[in-house]
Every structure is written in structure tokens, then in C-alpha cells.
Design a protein that fits this description.
Distance between the termini: 33 Å
CATH class of the largest domain: Mainly Beta
Low-confidence stretches: none
InterPro entries: Lon_prtase_N, Lon_prtase_N_sf, PUA-like_sf
Organism: Gemmobacter aquaticus
CATH architecture of the largest domain: Roll
Number of domains: 2
Protein name: ATP-dependent protease
Strand content: 25-35%
Strand order of the largest sheet: 1-3-6-7-8
Keywords: Hydrolase, Protease
Structural class: alpha+beta
CATH superfamily of the largest domain: LON domain-like
GO molecular function, one term: peptidase activity
CATH topology of the largest domain: Archaeosine Trna-guanine Transglycosylase, Chain: A, domain 4
Number of strands: 8
Radius of gyration: 18 Å
Largest sheet: 5 strands, mixed, barrel
Oligomer: single chain
Length: about 210
């Protein structure tokens, strides 16, 4: 487990729309673009092996792609190489971060100076959610999965610890990028579960953009 003193001031950034990584979650990724292959090679040489997952933020009327203010860093914990030189990797979430500024350099990928302090809690023990009504939550989830044509191992979900249950669903459910960002920025596990419930209920009602959680 990384400690605050182990976290670097600058990390490489992987902007990916709709991708959500949360602390202690596991995110599989397929890496094939040359700039991100270079990023992966540099990451493997580092002591911390951290990659910052963050969503790009489109600017209306511009081709420039800014970054969201908040992302989550994951430690490279698994990878395999395909015959044509691509990689299947797994990132394990370590901590969220706030972007201070982008850092220029000769690397083909983006790097940012990071502020970890607002999310010091992420490095602690798994969160709990005393307000979770598991039976009602699973019932809503079944209706949502049915509406989306999704399947899962319901026995495993019924037994999963609250953080694993809620964060895994937040990462895997097919929500819009803005909704994923709201789940990432939720200040607590309870707030994330409440946001997740709201998003599923909106989807079941066929809700509009104006109904999205702010």
C-alpha cells in the first residue's frame, strides 16, 4: 500500500472518456496507441508505477481537449503483451487527485502536476456505508440491468462488501462521461451510492439530461 510520502508530484495522464477508476478498484485497459505505449514503458521504469486516469473535457467550438479537474491514479498491477506489440494492462486504484497544472516536456503523452491532499482519505481503509439497504439496492439494480440487457453474478453481488459493491458498479455501469465524473467526485461512499441510485432511477424512467445529478 502506498503512503502519502510515496506519491509523486508529477504523473503521466491517460485521458479516456467514460473510463472510471476508483480507489482499490481494478480497471482493465487495452493500450495500443504509440504515445500510450511510450507512457506504459516509462511507467514500468518508475518506482511508483502510477498512471492517472482522467476524462477529457471538450470545449464547445474548439478542437482543444482540456482535462477534468479531478482524476484517479492507478498502480500498474498486471500486464500482458500481444503478438503485435499491444498491451492488456490492469490498474488498481490508489487515490484520486486534483490537477494543479499540465507539465510540458518531450514525452508524447500528457503529464500533470498533482495535488493529492484533498483525497488523503483514499489511502486509508475501505469505506463503509451504514445506510445501504442491500435488498432494495439489489432489487433496483436487477431492474436496471434488465433494462440494459446486462447480466451478472447476483450471488457475488449479494455477498460483496459495500465499497466493492458500489465502486465496482460505478465503474462498470454504462453511464455517460458526465455521470461517471459525478460518481468519481462523490465525497463519500454513501454519496456515491446515492448518485448511483439516482442515475439508475433516471435511466429506468428514460430521463432527460436535465434530470442528471449535479
Amino acid at each position: 500500500m502506498l503512503k502519502p510520502a510515496d506519491l509523486p508530484e508529477v504523473i503521466c495522464i491517460f485521458p479516456l472518456p467514460g473510463a472510471l477508476l476508483l480507489p482499490r478498484g481494478r480497471l482493465p485497459l487495452h493500450v495500443f496507441e504509440p504515445r500510450y505505449l511510450a507512457m506504459l514503458n516509462d511507467c514500468l521504469k518508475s518506482d511508483h508505477r502510477l498512471i492517472g486516469m482522467i476524462q477529457p473535457r471538450e470545449i464547445p467550438g474548439s478542437t482543444e481537449r482540456k482535462l477534468q479537474a479531478i482524476g484517479c491514479a492507478g498502480r500498474l498491477t498486471g500486464f500482458s503483451e500481444t503478438e503485435d506489440g499491444r498491451y492488456m494492462i490492469t490498474l488498481t486504484g490508489v487515490s484520486r487527485f486534483r490537477v494543479r497544472e499540465e507539465v510540458s516536456g518531450f514525452q508524447p503523452y500528457r503529464r500533470c502536476a498533482i495535488d493529492w491532499a484533498p483525497f488523503a482519505r483514499d489511502l486509508g481503509r475501505p469505506e463503509s456505508d451504514p445506510g445501504l439497504d442491500r435488498a432494495a439496492f439489489i432489487e433496483l439494480l436487477k431492474r436496471f440491468f434488465s433494462s440494459q440487457g446486462l447480466a451478472t453474478d447476483w450471488g457475488s453481488l449479494a455477498e460483496a462488501e459495500p465499497e466493492l459493491l458500489i465502486n465496482s458498479l460505478a465503474m462498470l455501469c454504462p453511464f455517460e462521461p458526465a455521470d461517471k465524473q459525478a460518481l468519481l467526485e462523490a465525497p463519500s461512499l454513501q454519496t456515491r451510492r446515492e448518485t448511483l441510485v439516482a442515475l439508475m432511477e433516471i435511466a429506468l424512467r428514460g430521463g432527460t439530461e436535465g434530470e442528471r445529478p449535479q
